[in-house]
Amino acid sequence: MNPSRRQLFSTLAALAASPARAARRPPNIIWFMYDDLGSAGLGCFGQQKIRTPHSDRLAREGTRLTACYAGGSVCAPSRSVLMTGLHLGHTPVRANAQTIPLRDEDFTVAELLKRAGYATGHFGKWGLGDAGSTGAATRQGFDEFFGYLHQTQAHNYWPEYLRDGEARFPLPANVGRRKGTYSAPLIAERMERFIEKNAARPFFLYASPTLPHALFHPPDNKPYDNQPWTKRQRDYASMVTDADAQLGRLLALLDKHGIADNTVVFCTSDNGGPEGPEGPFFETNGGLRGYKGSLWEGGLRVPMVVRWPGRVPAGRTDATPCYFADFLPTAAAIAGVKAPAVDGVSLMPAITGRGRVKPRTLYWEQSRWDSKTGLLREETLAQAVRQDRWKAIRSKPGAPLALYDLAADPHEDNDVAAANPKAITALERYLASARVPPRPHNNGNPEWVGRKDIPPSD
């Protein structure tokens, strides 16, 4: 551990042990994240065909952030931003790269909360370091982990094993590509067990079920068996509703233990919705341009609901632009500890309706990963930036910026760069120093490179 990180840990530990903190119990924090849901995937964000009653309940009892963005347009980069509070020009994992791990010197929100006295648990898909690497979840601040450490393995809902910490948790009924044990209920059960076990102390639960990520292989199509849709559409819808039911069981446990009023629940998706036949059919991106994997609004915009009874207004909406890098400083503010310097800012003014969020620029990029060598190249394929009403996209290195006025053109139909040279100049100035080159390293687990029996990374 380097000296600066050790010093930060010592400071947080001292804060956690102070008499002032001992006088009250810090709020619990739950981050519940759908996988590939899209900004209009929930009923409370306009979904008309898929049932999401528990997520919709959160919206009635909390605040919807209607201009929320994921950390990236695909899985691992988005989650790296979420965990580190650093945008894609600074965060360690910038591509779905089978899997480039977080390093020991990287600092996560789980480490911050653990040092603040929280029990920390992550269940579902991690994607930031496989077993045996520095990036494994239990080496990055989590007391417990159960699910898929490796993001590409998480494409399969009937795997031969899951990970319990870093140990293999065998599923013998699935050996030989059989479909004997569906993974989603096992992961959901561990989420519930974590709350039961830690109900009497502060806890941070990072719940990221892989649902409804493709491949779409649920055990059945309930409750959509009789819908006149394609099988793929029924599969997708049933997986969304299954994830929503998991959220419902977590909320019921908070009620059971009388801790709902002292628990902040965030509900979102890791990136935009899919482009396949189910995406347009369900209008998962609400008509925005683009889908998962793009830097258009449809690839980056996600739903966000925050509930904290008595502190977060019920039934309210807030249009403050925000993104996953804001979670770490927001969690620090909730826990009452100091956050390290990161790219995000605290969203407490937006979620409580008191004051304004500190202005800043939101940044995304897409990087290239070489599947033959397992190395992340240092070039950037595309960049996007949002500054107040302006959204700019550079489609490839050296290309001019396209500029969109999101206040007047949320679908990004009209490039207004030529008419707004001052805005372009300001954004170019920001982009000139927005990123540092990623540190090249292999993926920490060479056995995964070139595997033919694993579905390709999304």
Can you give me a brief rundown of this structure?
With 458 residues, this protein is an alpha/beta fold. It has helices spanning 3-17, 19-22, 53-61, 75-84, 109-115, 183-198, 231-256, 278-282, 297-300, 327-335, 348-352, 421-431; strands at residues 28-34, 63-65, 68-69, 119-125, 144-148, 161-164, 167-170, 203-208, 263-269, 301-302, 304-307, 316-318, 322-323, 362-370, 375-387, 390-394, 402-405.
Q: What key attributes describe this structure?
A:
Arylsulfatase, C-terminal domain, 2 domains, disordered N terminus, Alkaline Phosphatase, subunit A, 26% helix, four-stranded antiparallel β-sheet, ten-stranded mixed β-sheet, alpha/beta, 458 residues, 12 helices, globular
